[in-house]
Amino acid sequence: MEQHVQDEWEKFSELLAKISGYSEAIGLLHWDLRTGAPRKGAEIRSETIGMLSGEMFRLETSPLMGKFTEFFSRPEVMKQLTAVQNTIVADCRKEYDRSKSIPSKRYEEYSVLAAHSQTMWEEAKENNDFASFEPYLSKIVAFKQEFIDYWGVKGTRYDTLLDMYEPDLTVEKVDDLFNRLRSRLVPLVEAISASPHKPDTKFLHAIFEKEQQQKFGLFVLEQMGYDFAAGRLDESVHPFATGLNPGDVRITTNYLLDNVTSAVFSSLHEGGHALYEQNINKELVGTPLAQGASMGIHESQSRLWENMIGRSRTFWHRYYGDLQQHFPQQLAGVEVEDFYQAINSVANSFIRIEADELTYNLHIIVRYEIEKLIFNEGLAVKDLPQVWNAKYQEYLGITPPTDELGVLQDVHWSGGDFGYFASYSLGNMYAAQILNTLRKELPEFDELIAAGNLLPIKEWLTAKIYVYGKSLTPAQIIEQVTGEPLNPDYLADYLEVKYTELYKL
Amino acid sequence: MEQHVQDEWEKFSELLAKISGYSEAIGLLHWDLRTGAPRKGAEIRSETIGMLSGEMFRLETSPLMGKFTEFFSRPEVMKQLTAVQNTIVADCRKEYDRSKSIPSKRYEEYSVLAAHSQTMWEEAKENNDFASFEPYLSKIVAFKQEFIDYWGVKGTRYDTLLDMYEPDLTVEKVDDLFNRLRSRLVPLVEAISASPHKPDTKFLHAIFEKEQQQKFGLFVLEQMGYDFAAGRLDESVHPFATGLNPGDVRITTNYLLDNVTSAVFSSLHEGGHALYEQNINKELVGTPLAQGASMGIHESQSRLWENMIGRSRTFWHRYYGDLQQHFPQQLAGVEVEDFYQAINSVANSFIRIEADELTYNLHIIVRYEIEKLIFNEGLAVKDLPQVWNAKYQEYLGITPPTDELGVLQDVHWSGGDFGYFASYSLGNMYAAQILNTLRKELPEFDELIAAGNLLPIKEWLTAKIYVYGKSLTPAQIIEQVTGEPLNPDYLADYLEVKYTELYKL
């Protein structure tokens, strides 16, 4: 590398490190707001988050960033950079080009609103009061519509939002993937409904003391290889994982007293996200590549741990005894096979994060359809509860009795995360396809789980996926790991095999 | 106010709000690092704190700040501002003039170091290993010496540091105050040593479960009027209070299993700081006046609650029954008067924060003398343990057996807080003088405490002190509240009366 290129790279790295620093601070301010910050400080806190988000945005779209990305994109300079360096430049350039024309004041106002409206959502959910939340959500949608114009529209307006979480994802692609998936899921769900086999799930809903739930959750995270010296587990209304820096990747969960599995599966889920972030190559630290390749790939890791491992028969043959020890009274007389059947019982239900693996994707399709309506058809926010309920009736055959169990259940929209939900089903698809390869390359997969030796699985995922962070695209990762592009049939196959056996179809 | 002055004021207010935002973020990053951030994230975290501190420093010393403070200091503009506005300008101008020539890069490096070295101090203290901490402390001292040159020296070099925490405080003034105080304390301590009365303190050191200590601490904070909707209580190695914003003023404590009073008194102490910050006039929010008048005044409030209220006989006549209920076995058969005598037992001991009210001031004088030696006489950091031990022998007649019980006990130096310690004894002096007025203006003072009705006391302090924040100087506050300047005789009188009775002298 020529000296002047190296000098420029050092200055560029300082800018990137500064952006990472802002991101860490904003992440902590958010985490704190969701895990126990005092209520009376929330309003000023939202302004602080907005101010810092605005500053970070200013750096990402600054003339200096423009200058650096232009310089490092010159062919004679690119030749001197490593592949990773070129990817860093391309990533910054994409963000710069996309956002540079948004006035940073507007972005700051939006960030204040998004932070504040998450607090308003928490209250609205608690009080089952959509009306109090509606004005905030309307403003967020208006901001997103405004930003879509700045970001630029290639296909449909909603495509612009999908691309934020999954590069190059479009309505056309999602429609195709979801149609293919649905065409295979619907007959399966119907067959299950018609099946006389109805697993008993009552015992999952005794009273399970929080302290014991917490202990078991910590135990499971330890088993997965989650590094507590580089993370911590807290409580929040809606579980989440957040990577503040590679040595500080936190997760939260929510303990439901009358539901023993909710916190277990959310810990496995968020733990999967966290394993990813904890194991990104340390050389990427301080660059925009020190994060997941996309939200779809991120969700593939959370869903793989939560479902493909966490809801497997083998997993519970190993760990059910531990769970029973934590709840000897509640689970007395419940056999492991009963438990396995219960946690995989398929039922059309209201709450996405508590849904079974099969109908889960229908919950996602509902949200995806609604977001399309909002951004491509102009659906008004005030009509969301009604449309939500109608879609649940259409796709799941049930109508939520309250907004708390309906349109208010998810945190995402309150924080402006429109376009995110598709990532969950994409994640399921990626996960099933990755699992297929994992089983081939680690033939002792089941034996490892049966022996409670999950670390080789974590290590395989680290070597194949985690370590790359965002230095590969989702398409590159899935090709490199599995040898073919994303194919929803793996998920359909996986679900068919699992549920045909479970429901004796 | 002329329109253009008003326009400028609005822009100035935006700058101030931005500085407050940085301060909140930095405060939270620090709080989190001390209360449970994962170890492996601490190093990058320190850099993030440093980066943001550098940004904040850049704003405080920016040409824009120079321009505003110059403009608002013009006589024709000053006339148009309120008294509070003029104080804001003066405060910003003082900081700007003092620090503008420090290169912001240097300040940022210092901030990274200070954050990191607090973590190193925690480890060094845990391992009783001064040598591992010495290089960090040496660098901090070197930075302070460098900054003193930038800040400017009027009297002695150490005066410059004293002035940071207490405006216009000098070695000359502190020497005088401390000499006057010591001349009255030494005979009192001697008389106590000679007294045959030796209160039994053994029962304070049974095993006291943490959960119960925590419950009692929360109860006491509630009694004081600490607003939990605008704060929270956590644990840290060294207790502290931090005002992130006026609706978010947090305190920490440290539970010692074999010491029932340590956490109680630290909660009262930090609670006193927090009451101050929670009750500052909301109109000062977003300005540099939304903090305590000085660290001396701040400590007067923590020490007043901790000692003058919290170690009073009346307080325990009301609350001892509650404490006993939390520890029925450990305190069985211990009468309230025994307890009162025990918590006020005077003994030369190693740990400042666990010292009695009387010898506490000697602990401060030791630190003050050592800081003077470092900054005015060039005492080397490597010699600190030896000098520390010698001073303890000289002032308290005991030599710490380990550095953990000696020079490593306090967090302050690790974070660069040289010049702070004097504030504690100043605080004791201010507190005794304020208490004297408080008793006159609220003659039912003892009855209120006896009835467990502490809120009128909080309200009196709010109206007289808290509400003003930093809009009055310490000199103005003490004059306005008590009608005279700071006078150490009030503290000496208070201690003489209390201990003459206690020790039947």
TrEMBL record, chains A, B:
Reactions catalysed according to its record: Release of a C-terminal amino acid with broad specificity, except for -Pro
Cofactor: record remark: Binds 1 zinc ion per subunit.
Catalytic EC class: hydrolase
Active site, per annotation: E270
Cofactor: Zn(2+)
Its EC number(s): 3.4.17.19
Listed PROSITE patterns: PEPTIDASE_M32 (PS52034)
Key words of the record: Carboxypeptidase, Hydrolase, Metal-binding, Metalloprotease, Protease, Zinc
Coiled-coil portions: none
Sites where the protein binds Zn(2+): H269, H273, E299
GO biological process: proteolysis
Listed GO MF terms: metallocarboxypeptidase activity; zinc ion binding
Family: Belongs to the peptidase M32 family.
Known role: Broad specificity carboxypetidase that releases amino acids sequentially from the C-terminus, including neutral, aromatic, polar and basic residues.
Name by which UniProt lists this protein: Metal-dependent carboxypeptidase
